[in-house]
Design brief:
Blueprint: E1 4-5, H1 8-30, E2 35-41, H2 45-60, E3 64-70, H3 76-88, E4 94-97, H4 107-112, H5 125-133, H6 141-152, E5 161-165, H7 172-181, E6 185-189, H8 196-201, E7 205-208, E8 226-229, H9 242-246, E9 251-252, H10 259-278
Parallel strand pairs: 1-9, 2-3, 2-4, 5-6, 5-7, 7-8, 8-9
């Protein structure tokens, strides 16, 4: 068996095109572009690259971006103040706080300073509760992007056994909630799960989101299973042993080119959605 590739680059391109059409309509109707504010603390090279990429994509689809860059020694209070100001700014539709922030900052406090209507990255407790209860709200962008990618390939989820390897509040936990809402039976695992291999072998859908290179071995994959690798490690290596897993899986995401493009596309779509809702 050789797995079908879940091509996030191709699917995201379609999503960006529809987002650009909505952005143009919004601009025509209101006289301004939907605006995403990005907040970056410190000078971490990877974070700087991600933020630049997101700003570039904003411009390409007709959104305006506003950059707030703060020094690495910024305090929690100062960051909360900046984020709160953006939450109160009527010209800002969405707020992205690039994470992780420096270790001395209370990241959760900073996230919670984002107004729910501008939480287009889906990082607040309000957004998580909306995902868990099936209420209207913004999805965490990577989990939401994963579901959109699976939908594009018409991957059935109802009644399937899904294993999520990872428990972060902005990836592992919310993707489990979204899968549960699609009537999948969800098991959460992580790097300390006893006999992780046994849990993965039973899964019809595997979402790897733990941030450890090739933690999920190819030989663990159930024949025909759907494998979504949401990890990214140095050297373009995901959390799944890709080559071996692709020989057993029915569907698989590449790294890069799978989940990553969907994350950015959903961020921009939700920014336009926030602008439309406010208007």
């Amino acid at each position: 068996m050789s797995a079908q590739i879940l091509d996030g680059t191709a699917v995201s391109r379609s999503l960006l095109e529809s987002t650009a059409e909505r952005a143009r309509a919004f601009t025509d109707n209101t006289g301004r572009k939907p605006t995403l504010a990005t907040v970056l603390v410190g000078d971490d090279p990877a974070s700087q690259t991600y933020v630049r990429m997101k700003r570039s994509r904003c411009e390409r689809v007709g959104l305006s971006s506003r950059a707030v860059e703060l020094p690495a020694d910024t305090s929690t209070d100062r960051l909360v103040e900046e984020v709160s100001a953006l939450s109160s700014d009527a010209s800002v539709d969405g707020i992205l706080l690039q994470h992780p922030v420096p270790a001395h900052i209370d990241e959760r406090a900073a996230f919670e300073a984002i107004a729910p209507g501008k939480d287009v990255d889906g990082v607040t407790m309000h957004s998580f509760a909306a995902m868990a209860f099936g209420e209207a709200g913004f999805h965490s962008c990577t989990p939401g992007g994963i579901l959109r990618l699976l939908d594009a390939y018409e991957v059935p989820l109802s009644g399937k056994r899904a294993v999520v390897v990872g428990r972060s509040p902005i990836l592992g936990k919310p993707v489990g909630m979204l899968l549960l809402a699609r009537d999948a039976t969800v098991t959460y695992c992580h790097s300390r799960t006893a006999d992780l291999a046994a849990a993965v072998r039973e899964a019809d859908v595997v979402v790897a989101a733990v941030g450890k290179a090739e933690l999920v071995r190819g030989e663990w994959i159930k024949p025909g299973a759907v494998v979504v690798d949401a990890g990214y490690n140095p050297g373009n290596v995901g959390d799944v042993e890709y080559a071996a897993a692709a020989e057993r899986a029915g569907y698989i995401t590449p790294v890069p080119g799978g989940v990553g493009p969907m994350t950015i596309a959903l961020l921009l779509e939700q920014t336009v959605q926030a602008a439309e809702a406010k208007a």
